Amino acid sequence: MDERLDGLIRRFMVPGSRASPTFVEDSEWEPVIDGEEYFAQVLVLLEKTGPGDSVFLTGLQIDAGVDLTGRPPGDPEYRPLADLLAAKAADGVDVRILLTAAVFSGSVPGVAIGPFRANAFAARTFRRHESLRGRVLMDWSGAGIGCHHQKMVVVAVAGEVTSFVGGLDLQPNRFDADPHDRLSLGDTRWGWHDGAARLRGPAAARVWEVFRARWAEAATLPRRYTWFPPVTFDEMNPPPFDTELPPAPPTEPYPSPGTAVQVLRSFEAWRIETLFLLYRRHWTTLPRHGVHEVYHGLAHALRAAKRYIYLEDQYFYETPGGRRRYELYGLLRDAAARGVKVILVCSGRKDPADAGVNRFRRRVTRDIQRGVIDRLKPADRANVMMHRIEDLTVHTKLMLVDDVFAAVGSANFYSRSMRGTDTELTTVYVTTGPQVRDLRVQLWAEHLRTRLTDELRPHLEDLDLALGIWNPWWLPPDAPAGTWRTAGYPAGFAPDERVLVPVGPWPEPSPRPLQRAADGVRKGAQLASSGIRAATDSTHRG
C-alpha cells in the first residue's frame, strides 16, 4: 500500500474492525449527484437482472408508482416500479423490499406524521402482484421517536454486487438535475438536490450484509395491522415470507488504486415494537449498546481537517431525539478556530413533507449560531460561511474535506442521526487521486449555475481561488476584484443565474440585485405618482 494512502487512512478514518472493515484499494466508490442520474443508473442494473440475481431496496419512502425514467402516469411508455419489480420476480430474480413503517402513524388514516401511511399503501400496491407477495416487509423496529432512515439499493447481476448508499428515495419528485427548474410547488419554482455513492467490490457486499440484518430484524416483528377504511384491516407483514436472506455472494476485488472505503452505520441500542416504550428489546443482530459508526467516522475526519470542510445538509439544527454528546458543532468550531474554512450549504426551500413555512428565512440556524459562531473569537468567525440555495431543497448528506476525504449517505448532520434515533448508513472515502477534488468541482459549478467548461475547470480545481466563491475575503491577494461575482472573472465563469445566498450575521446581498433594483424603481414611481412620497417627506420634516 502507498505510504500516502496509509497516512490518509490513519488521518481521516477510524481504525477498521470486523464489524466495520476498511476496504483498501479493492472497492469502487463513485459519487452520483442528483436524482435523474441516480434513477438512470439503478434502472440500467435492474434491467440487467435475470434468474438467480438479486434486487434489494429500502428507504424512508418508496413509491410503487415511480417510473425510473421520469415518465408520468398517462405517458404511453410509463412503467411503474411495482410492475418492473414484479416482472423481475416472476423471472426468478430474488426481489426484497423493506418499507419504513410506524405502529401508529402508519396504521391510522388522517395521521400526517412522516411517510409511513403512504408506505402502507405502497406495500399494498406491491403485494397486489402475485410474484411480490412475501417479498415486501414493513419495518417499524426503529427507536420509537425515530425511524429507519437508511436508503439502499443492492443489485447482484451474475454474482457481481453493486450497491447504492445515499439520501435518495425512489420518489417521483426526486427526479431532478441541474439547474433544478423542472419541479414546482404550487405556482413557484422548486428543485431537489441529492446524491448517493455507488459501490462495487467488497464494500458493496458489506451493504448487502447491512440489508440482510435489517431483513432479519423486520421478519421477527410481532403481528400488527393497518386500517384501510371503511372496515379493512390488513396485516402489516402477512405470511408467508422468507425470514432470512442468504449471505452476500463471494465478491471479487474491484481494483481501485489509492483509495479506501468504509460503510458506517447508526443504530440506537433498542428496537421498539409497540406503542409502549417500556416494551422494548435489544436488536437480534446488533451490539447491545447500539452502533455509532457514522458519528465516530465524521468526528475523526472533522478533527483532521486542515484546509476546508464543505458540508451539504438539509438541517444544521437539532430536532427531538438527539443528544448533546453526539453533536458535531463543537468540532466545526474547533476547525474554524485553527483556520480551516467551514462552508455550510443548505436549503432555500424545505422538503414539502416537513411541517411549517416552506421558504426558509435567510439567516444562519440557531444551533450553528450558538454552537459555532458565538463561541469563536471575532477574528475566527469569518472562517465560517453558510449559504442557502434559492428555491431548492438540499437533501444531500455530504461532507468533503481537503480534497481527499468524502462522506455521502443518509445521515443528517444533527445528533439524532449520529445517535441512531434514526438508523443511518453512510459511506466514507479517502483517495490519493483527484476523485474528491472532481466531486467538489462538479458540485460548486452546479451551485454557481455555470457550465463546467475546459476553460473554467482549472480555476475551480485551484482550491485557493475556488474558496473565494463562498467569501470574497478568502480570495488570493492577486485575484481580480469581482472574481466569482462578475461574469468572466475568472475566465469561463458564465452563470445563467445567481441562486447562492450567504446568510448569517454578515451583510446579506440580494440573490437577484437587478430585479430588486427594478422593483424599487417601479415602487418609487408608484409612490411618487400617488403623492404618498410628498406626504411622507413633509411628515418627517415636521
Which strand-content bin applies to the residues? 15-25%
Shape: globular
Between the first and last Cα atoms, what is the distance in angstroms? 81 Å
- Count up the helices: 14
Q: Which percent range fits the helix content?
A: 25-40%
Outline the low-pLDDT stretches.
Answer: 513-521, 530-542
What's the mean pLDDT score? 89
Main structural class: alpha+beta
Task: Describe the sheet with the most strands.
Answer: 10 strands, mixed
**Radius of gyration, CA atoms, in whole angstroms:** 25 Å
| Counted beta strands | 24
Describe this protein's structure.
The protein has 542 residues and is α+β, with helices and mostly antiparallel strands. The protein is 27% helix and 22% strand. Strands 1, 13, 16, 17, 18, 19, 21, 22, 23 and 24 form a ten-stranded mixed beta sheet that branches. Strands 2-10-7-6-3-4-5 form a seven-stranded mixed beta sheet, with helices on both faces. A three-stranded mixed beta sheet has the order 8-9-20, with no helix packed on it. The C terminus is likely disordered.
